[in-house]
Amino acid sequence: MSQEIRGKISAIYGDEMAAKNAASAVMGATGLSHNEVSIVAPHDPHFDDKLENDDKKVGLFMLKAHMGFALCGVVLGVFCGVLLGFYGPVYTQTSPALTVIALAILGFFVGLMIAGLASLRPDQDAVVNQTREATSAGKWIVVVNSPSHEKTEKGYEVLNTSAESISTSL
């Protein structure tokens, strides 16, 4: 599931020419396309479209994560409930069905909470905040949406040599 959401790099530049040169250098060094490397102009109100260019993939990832973790939680809850029904304390052995139901519901909600935590992607907060602050300050930003960890690292190395400031996500 985690391969469906890509790594991001945000590099700040003082002028348009430096940003264009950096974007070209990243595309040449990593083999990324124009769809994966974009430039955010100063005061761009739609910079979020360049940060996350495919919202449907993010939504699909979140749906899969929630369904998968919830199902795992229910299965784990049922398994624990059955074990407690056979080998647990007397009160779980006297009503094994209620024990299984209670633990399945608990597992469902714990699974949903874990999926929500996995979907938050707090590693991308630095990229989003830096881009927001830089565009409002009149800076140019090169945004890289990398399909792999290796290309994210290579892009970071290329941009780090010329950027005023740089941040990256996993």
From TrEMBL:
The chain crosses the membrane at residues 67-88, 100-120. Keywords: Membrane, Transmembrane, Transmembrane helix. This is DUF1269 domain-containing protein. The lineage of its organism: Bacteria, Pseudomonadati, Pseudomonadota, Gammaproteobacteria, Alteromonadales.
